[in-house]
């Protein structure tokens, strides 16, 4: 099976081709990503209208490049998969319209994919892990622990009750005048800093569940920053690095402890040796990955995380999630709609804090 995937739910326009031969591991034949960071940099965040226009302009070029890099044409595809939500609605609509155009003109089956399912299934694409597994999905808009039993079978064990960690990294960067996206720049600063100089809160650790909260970190950061500015008139390079290090240590500690608890909750449902996987943009953070590895080793769990470029937004994960849905017999019609919100765990629609 060969699937073309499209992704345009946030600020990356992407197309990819993924192939899986009978009985073989899936392969990424091409993965094209056009980032929009420069378009939004003057605004300190993603501007939905600018994003939607840029997606509409770039999608067909992405598709052309993805097919060319794979050395294939639309005739070689078995289906076209597209992110149908959740995300910025204008961008999601651009992708869905483009995929419908391809499906209508070629007769290829159309498969709508949940962006979060794309992130959550990526460790199967990259590391070949089997169901069931415990997924920590940590991204720009989401943070949740999921029990993954199949391509459409997700149970949420817990997650953030307010901000996502990616959002917290981005806000931290903004407050300290560092470039966006904040994750990589805060990580780079943190590597030069002393994590002990500033003590950030570790919220919700007094509760036994695996829910998290990140909104208090930015308030703490703002207070610390303002105090240094009031005392010394400005921030030095070292102040900035120490603030980043303190902030990142709080995120790392919280995720580590909540992962311990999530493993316990997971084992209550799925006894045996657990596999734990992390995905989403924040899973690209090396300190977070290292902490999760340690926690899993202590708990006797296997840990995997996709390579960095497949952690952040891409279309290979959408093509692959589409491939799994296609194999399960799923097909969408030309009436497929773009959804701004689309919780993975459909059984509990009253999800709190699932981000967007
Ligand atoms: P979602 O998938 O929830 O809709 P999104 O698609 O915007 O949100 P991703 O592309 O998965 O999110 O991840 C982007 C986020 O990951 C950004 O907030 C970015 O700052 C963060 N990020 C990227 N690299 C790192 C890193 N090394 N450390 C921490 N955060 C990172
Ligand atoms: Fe994403």
From TrEMBL:
One of its GO terms (molecular function) is tRNA N(6)-L-threonylcarbamoyladenine synthase activity. The keyword Transferase applies. Substrate binds at residues 137-141, 170, 183, 285. CDD domains: ASKHA_NBD_TsaD_bac. The keyword tRNA processing applies. Binds 1 Fe(2+) ion per subunit. Fe cation binds at residues 115, 119, 313. It is found in: Cytoplasm. InterPro entries: ATPase_NBD, Gcp-like_dom, KAE1/TsaD, TsaD. Required for the formation of a threonylcarbamoyl group on adenosine at position 37 (t(6)A37) in tRNAs that read codons beginning with adenine. Is involved in the transfer of the threonylcarbamoyl moiety of threonylcarbamoyl-AMP (TC-AMP) to the N6 group of A37, together with TsaE and TsaB. TsaD likely plays a direct catalytic role in this reaction. This is tRNA N6-adenosine threonylcarbamoyltransferase. It comes from Leisingera daeponensis. The gene is tsaD.
């Amino acid at each position: 099976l060969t699937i073309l995937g499209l992704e345009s739910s946030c600020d990356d326009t992407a197309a990819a081709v993924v192939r899986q031969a009978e009985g073989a591991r899936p392969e990424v034949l091409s993965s094209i990503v056009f980032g929009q960071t420069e378009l939004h940099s003057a605004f300190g965040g993603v501007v939905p209208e600018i994003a939607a226009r840029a997606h509409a302009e770039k999608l067909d070029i992405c598709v052309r490049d993805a097919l060319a890099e794979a050395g294939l044409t639309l005739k070689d595809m078995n289906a076209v998969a597209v992110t149908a939500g959740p995300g910025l609605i204008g961008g999601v609509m651009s992708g869905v319209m483009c995929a419908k155009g391809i499906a209508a003109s070629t007769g290829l089956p159309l498969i709508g994919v949940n962006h979060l399912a794309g992130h959550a299934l990526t460790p199967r694409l990259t590391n070949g892990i089997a169901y069931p597994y415990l997924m920590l999905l940590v991204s720009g808009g989401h943070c949740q622990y999921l029990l993954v039993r199949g391509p459409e079978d997700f149970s949420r064990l817990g997650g953030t009750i307010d901000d996502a960690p990616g959002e917290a990294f981005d806000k931290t960067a903004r407050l300290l005048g560092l470039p966006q996206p904040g994750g990589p720049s805060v990580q780079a600063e943190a590597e030069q800093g002393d994590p002990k100089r500033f003590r950030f809160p570790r919220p919700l650790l007094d509760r036994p569940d695996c829910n998290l909260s990140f909104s208090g970190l930015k308030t703490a950061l703002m207070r610390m920053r303002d105090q240094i500015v009031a005392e010394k008139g400005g921030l030095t390079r070292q102040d900035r690095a120490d603030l980043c290090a303190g902030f990142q240590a709080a995120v790392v500690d919280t995720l580590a402890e909540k992962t311990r608890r999530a493993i316990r909750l997971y084992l209550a449902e799925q006894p045996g040796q657990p596999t734990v996987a992390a995905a989403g943009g924040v899973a690209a953070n090396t300190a977070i990955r290292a902490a999760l590895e340690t926690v899993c080793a202590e708990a006797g769990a296997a840990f995997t995380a996709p390579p960095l470029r497949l952690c952040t937004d891409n279309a290979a994960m959408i093509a692959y999630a589409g491939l799994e849905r296609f194999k399960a017999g799923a097909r969408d019609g030309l009436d497929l709609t773009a959804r701004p919100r689309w919780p993975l765990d459909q059984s509990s629609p009253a999800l709190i804090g699932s981000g967007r």
